[in-house]
Design a protein that fits this description.
heterodimer; A: alpha/beta; 4-stranded antiparallel beta sheet; 11 helices; 10 strands
Chain lengths: 273, 276
């Protein structure tokens, strides 16, 4: 491990002046993050293009989830968490002093590692929760939004007769699709997914993966995953992170077939991980 | 063989017997109190006893008083207690929280006679008249001083059991923190909150000392917030000091009623928490 760590010092991309990428939906510029004294992210920069899926891969503890949580300002909710740098959404820094994180989270949705539907709410209310909790008016009726969102995640046919049942009464894979429906009901612009399949069986995983590819028609998707095959299947761009640094970022085909960095190659071929 | 199988088995048996004996020692006094109260109190029970006031030989006024004072206490104490618990659990991420928590825990054990004197002094000073100082209102204020720290503590503890992933799910939808707390966190722990409230209500329903200093007791039905009022614990206390056998018998009857009320609340707590 130490040799690997030393190797990547030479590739360290930090302190490089980052230009604003006008094509990007979201762009991270020199992001550093800490939990207490421990630095988790070291000058990570990356752009997310609209209508693409960007995968973030890397071994456990490399900071990929923390990085993802910087994109909708969830990182700062953890006590002692700190973050420096910029993250742009349509060219505007979401960490600007005048911006309320609540507004950002409406535009940048999130799906978590474990399905977390609200246990006190019905399936219907779970999907409607975003709109109800934030008081957003969509112009359409709530019924329509719920139906459309559930259809988008291909859950409608499975639950249309059980909309009054608790959100936790369905299977794990269904719950995760319910959580995705809950996120897209708010019509966000970007969807962040933090290892959305790690608690699911292979069949449920395949459904979510298919869904991710469909979602990019409408949204920009950023997905953190442990599973390299998953990254190669669903994503257009892949970022490889190691010990809090972004080692390599490029088109998924290039990263998996022709990695430029030796560390990326070693990780992808399964030499460590 | 000191460590033979038989000897280890014997030690196991001895340990079990020791535990069982201790349980008996703990339960016997409680059971005998219940038994004694039931035996002596039951003959008193009648419609008149339960509905008439003291001048007609009943404790209806005391039952009514207890219900009114516990109700008033709940109106004051439940919102304050729950919101304080919410503060400690959801918003109390600063260095004062730990001291607040310690003080609150200390208040749950506070000598209740001092609480009574404090409520008396508080109302006397605020309203500037001793007429209000001995009143239903003062009694409710005193009991809410006992209720608030209990509810605060149980609320905080049950809120801590709500998984953080639910808070994050709500916040990630762009909900504000207050909305997350009210619409997601509190409903999730509803049974925990109800349990805490019922336990606090049962506790204040049985308090005597703070009432001696505040409501002072009465022989009549409710006469307004600024008037004196009767309560079951106080009724038991005053009756037990009387030299007359009839008064003492009434005290036993009142004790039985109070125990039944508290027991009912405890059973309600059990049912509420079992449903989870």
């Amino acid at each position: 491990m130490t040799t690997l760590a030393q190797e990547n010092i030479t590739t360290k991309p930090s302190q490089v002046f980052q230009e604003i990428d006008s094509n990007a939906k979201m762009q991270a510029i020199n992001v550093d993050a800490w939990f207490g004294q421990k630095q988790i992210l070291k000058s990570v920069s990356l752009s997310v293009k609209p209508h693409t899926v960007t995968a973030i891969i890397g071994p456990s503890g490399c900071g990929k989830s923390t990085f993802l949580r910087c994109f909708n300002r969830m990182h700062e909710l953890v006590p002692n968490a700190k973050m420096v740098g910029q993250i742009l959404l349509d060219g505007k820094n979401i960490y600007d002093r005048r911006i309320d994180p609540v507004q950002i989270r409406r535009r940048v949705g999130m799906v978590f590692q474990k399905p977390n539907p609200f246990p006190t709410m019905s399936i219907y209310d779970n999907v409607a929760a975003g709109l109800k909790l934030t008081g957003v008016k969509t112009g359409k009726s709530l019924d329509e939004v719920v139906k459309r969102s559930l259809e988008q995640v291909t859950l409608w046919d499975e639950v249309k007769d059980d909309l009054k049942k608790p959100g936790t009464s369905i299977s794990g894979g269904q719950q995760q699709r319910l959580c995705i429906a809950r996120a897209i009901a708010l019509q966000p612009e970007v969807i962040l997914m933090d290892e959305p399949c790690s608690a699911l069986d292979p069949i449920a995983t395949a459904k979510i993966e298919k869904l991710v590819i469909e979602l990019k028609q409408t949204y920009a998707v950023v997905i953190v995953t442990h599973n390299m095959q998953q990254a190669s299947r669903v994503s257009d761009y892949t970022a490889f992170m190691y010990l809090g640094e972004l080692i390599e970022f490029g088109e998924t085909g290039q990263i998996f077939e022709n990695p430029k960095n030796r560390l990326t190659e070693k990780y992808i071929t399964g030499e460590f991980g | 063989m000191i460590n033979s199988y038989g000897f280890r088995k014997l030690k196991n048996r001895l340990f079990f017997v020791l535990c069982a004996v201790c349980v008996v020692i703990a339960v016997v006094p409680l059971a005998s109190i219940l038994f004694e109260v039931a035996i002596r109190g039951a003959p008193q029970l009648s419609i008149t006893f339960l509905t008439a006031n003291a001048s007609k030989g009943g404790i209806g006024h005391a039952i009514q008083g207890t219900l009114i004072i516990v109700g008033l206490t709940s109106i004051i104490g439940i919102p304050i207690g729950i919101l304080s618990g919410v503060y400690l659990s959801e918003f109390g991420n600063n260095r004062y929280t730990q001291s607040l928590r310690t003080i609150n825990n200390m208040l749950t054990q506070f000598p209740s006679i001092i609480v009574g004197i404090t409520a008396y002094a508080l109302i006397f000073n605020i309203l500037g008249s001793s007429k209000w100082a001995f009143s239903t209102l003062t009694g409710a204020v005193a009991l809410s001083f006992i209720m608030i720290p209990i509810i605060t503590r149980t609320t905080e503890e049950s809120l801590k059991l709500v998984p953080n992933t639910l808070r994050e799910a709500s916040l990630a939808l762009g909900a504000h923190k207050w909305r997350t707390t009210l619409s997601v966190v509190l409903p999730t722990t509803k049974t925990g909150l109800i349990t805490g409230i019922l336990l606090a209500v049962a506790r204040v329903a049985g308090e005597t000392a703070p009432l001696i200093m505040t409501i002072q007791g009465s022989r009549y039905f409710f006469r307004g917030l600024n008037g004196r009022i009767a309560a079951l614990p106080l009724e038991i206390w005053t009756n037990s000091l009387q030299p007359y056998p009839e008064a003492q018998a009434q005290g036993w009857g009142a004790a039985l009623i109070l125990i039944i009320i508290v027991l009912t609340l405890n059973i309600a707590v059990r049912l509420a928490s079992r449903r989870e």
